[in-house]
Amino acid sequence: MDIKTKVIHAGIHPDSATGAIMTPIYQTSTYVQDSPGKHKGYEYSRTQNPTRHVLEKNLAALENTKHGLCFSSGMAAADCVIKLLSPGDHVLCSADVYGGTYRIFKKVYERLGIQSSFVDFQNQSNIEQYIQENTKMIWIETPSNPMLQIIDIKKIAQITNQKKLLLVIDNTFATPYLQQPAPLGADIILHSVTKYLGGHSDVVMGALCLNDDGLYESLAFYQNSCGATPGPFDSFLTLRGIKTLALRMERHSENAMKIAHYLQEHAKIDQVYYPGLKDHPGHQTASSQMRLFGGMLSFTLKEDTLQSAFKVVEKLRVFKLAESLGGVESLAGHPATMTHASIPKEERIKTGVKDSLIRLSVGIEDIEDLQQDLEQALS
User: Fold this and answer.
1) 46 is catalytic
2) What pTM was computed for the model?
């Protein structure tokens, strides 16, 4: 079944009780049992809920994996993955990642004895020198946030298979419509469902998709034991949002490509970071592992100051200045003071997050309106 059909039908069946074509919102905390331990597969909604169960099956099908797990946020999903590790273990993470990922490793788990290193994964020949005897996991984003770096998943998977390490791929920017890491060798795929999967800026949620039964049992145990699970209404909203994922990602990608070319020609722009551009260093790799290049891009101004960046984002009218990304509406962000403020400046600069860097989540509005908005803000 093609993914354009999967987003509408995979894991979803008409309600057995009523025939309702839309998955019902099972707004209940508990379930009546015929006898202790004798029930219809559900005991308590933190452990399992029918609406969430359908969403988890749908996401697993989209990522071509056996299992899916949903969480109350993307960071809750990340937290669950890190719980697979023990004090003394080491994680090797790509340097350009969401600020919350850096924060949870450095500010939360290093205090508990889990070590982490952040290195440039664009040159795979350098990776093995950073793997330590206690390294248990490699964690990457591709495309990355906010520099849109591209990492060759197959090549990293060859290393992790040889070294018997877990490979975690944050697939939030690409979504399973544009990129499917499991067939390329990923062990665990992470999503901030808040973004493109929900698609309408009205849900906060995270998800994990994977094939290994043993890993699934461990992650499901932590999901239930720690309790960071989403409610049934959010699960319903996400199922509704996913039905238009293919259509939305096509339009996001189309608009972002046009905006990237427009910005490349603008006199006030220094650099544009978008993997769809042929001069992007990861363009060939992105072309080989992605269907399209997505709706995210970043750019720097020739006048590299906080003040110049603030002037631009404050003047935008169609693009809204806000945290997050992946909704139908276009958003602009200033990574240095917003999404990546938790990363020390010296570390941000190493990955290219300058004071003038602006990140765009290009929505599905009319392209002429988006370009005119950027033009008036830049002028």
Assistant:
1) yes
2) 0.96
Catalytic residue among 98, 102, 216, 274: 98
Tell me the mean pLDDT in the region 20-28.
96
Q: Which of 31, 46, 120, 262 is catalytic?
A: 46
Return d(Cα 114, Cα 87) in angstroms, integer: 5
What are the structure tokens assigned to 48, written together? Answer: 């399992």
Could you give the strand order of the β-sheet that contains 188-192, starting from the edge strand earlier in sequence? 67-71, 206-210, 188-192, 166-170, 135-141, 90-94, 115-119
> Which pLDDT does position 126 carry in this prediction?
75
Fold exhibited by the domain 3-242: Aspartate Aminotransferase; domain 2 (3.40.640)
- Residue tagged active-site, from 136, 195, 251, 359: 195
Known active-site residue 98: yes
φ, ψ of residue 194 in degrees (nearest 5): -50, -30
* Whether 248 is catalytic: no
* Residue given tokens 């309702």 in the structure block: 20
Is domain 246-378 classified as CATH 1.10.3720.10? Answer: no
Collect all residues with Cβ–Cβ distance below 8 Å to 87 and sequence separation of at least 6: 112, 113, 114
Region 137-162: mean pLDDT is 97
CB 329 within 8 Å of CB 320 = yes
Strand ranges (E), the chain: 67-71, 90-94, 115-119, 135-141, 166-170, 188-192, 206-210, 269-273, 296-301, 320-321, 331-333, 358-361
Span 263-295, pLDDT tens digits: 999 999 999 999 999 999 999 999 999 999 999
Query: How far is residue 154's CA from residue 165's CA, in Å, rounded to a whole number?
Result: 14
Angle at the Cα of 27 from the Cα atoms of 51 and 228, rounded to 5 degrees: 70
Separation of alpha carbons 149 and 127, rounded Å: 15
Q: CATH 3.40.640.10 residue ranges in the chain?
A: 3-242
Residues of the chain with CATH 3.90.1150.10: 246-378
Task: Identify the pLDDT of residue 125.
Answer: 75
pLDDT at 145: 96
